[in-house]
Specification:
about 280 residues, binds zinc ion, 10 strands, alpha+beta, 6 helices, globular, four-stranded antiparallel sheet
């Protein structure tokens, strides 16, 4: 599932390759995504220029001329690729190419999504902060607002697992399953520990390592599982840096103990029972 680093990597690439381009026409092959793509979508988007590439949590925000923003979420398996004009060949199954944006330089942006959990909708830019998807999100994990005091202040009285707290989008927006697992390993805190039992020093470590790991993952183009590819159709390289995620039964790189996997909040949660408590 694409997380914040994958979306940020995509944003940076599209900023280089697609900013300033005009969308000549859009075509919808399959409108049935997480929600139905609006019937007037192609009519509204055609003729607009891509002015701004922004991101909020795991949402890519494509600011278009005329005060409209394309709000995109890649869901479980979505990819937005920039094709043609030397941007690499299409290795995607064309049956899953659901939206096609023709640009004025002969290239195209294509939204491919085998599982169709993604979301694409147009929002007036002036109303973006009030959009139902964005209005309740907590601070960005890489912003100064996400700090030790902030996280620690949210732990008293909370019996929920610390990993679920870190993945609660209302508390901090954009830390998903992969990076929550990795940050907790680096901070030596078990993912299933009740949040109210986290010390201030541990909260500081969780914040510090969350920021460091997200930053490194962005620099590596993110982590690739299954279908994710960046805008050039390239996989992310961070998978080789993962210490616990996806490594159940394999030896901990620090101590050699087999990595465990416990389901928390319906999500697989990987940890080392020796290094983390
Ligand atoms: Zn270990």
């Amino acid at each position: 599932m694409p997380e914040l680093p994958e979306v940020e990597s995509l944003r940076l690439l599209l900023q280089e390759s697609a900013r300033g381009r005009r969308i000549i026409a859009a075509r919808i092959n399959e409108p049935r995504l997480r929600r139905l793509v609006a019937a007037d979508f192609t009519q509204i988007i055609a003729g607009r220029t891509i002015d701004v590439l922004a991101r909020r949590a795991k949402y890519l925000l494509v600011g278009l001329s005329g005060g409209v923003t394309l709000l995109a979420h890649l869901g479980m398996s979505g990819s937005l690729t920039h094709r043609g004009g030397g941007f690499g060949d299409n290795e995607f199954n064309p049956a899953h190419d659901h939206l096609h944006f023709q640009l004025d330089d002969g290239t195209a942006l294509v939204y491919n999504d085998p599982r169709r959990f993604g979301l694409l909708k147009l929002v007036p830019t002036a109303e973006l902060e009030q959009a139902v998807e964005l209005r309740e999100l907590g601070p960005e994990p890489l912003s100064p607002a996400f700090n030790a005091e902030y996280l620690f202040a949210r732990t008293p009285g909370r019996r929920a697992a610390i990993k679920n707290l870190v993945m609660d989008q209302r508390i901090v927006a954009g830390i998903g399953n992969i990076y929550a697992s990795e940050a907790l390993f680096a901070a030596r805190v078990r993912p299933g520990r009740a949040a109210h039992r986290i010390t201030r020093a541990e909260a500081a470590k969780i914040v510090e390592f969350s920021k460091a790991i997200l930053t490194r993952a962005i620099g590596s183009g993110g982590t690739t599982f299954r279908s994710y590819r960046d805008s050039r159709g390239m996989p992310g390289r961070f998978v080789s840096s993962l210490k616990v995620y996806g490594r159940e039964g394999e030896a901990c790189y620090v101590c050699g103990t087999p990595i465990k996997n416990k389901v928390l909040g319906q999500r697989a949660s990987f940890y080392c029972p020796s290094c983390q408590d």
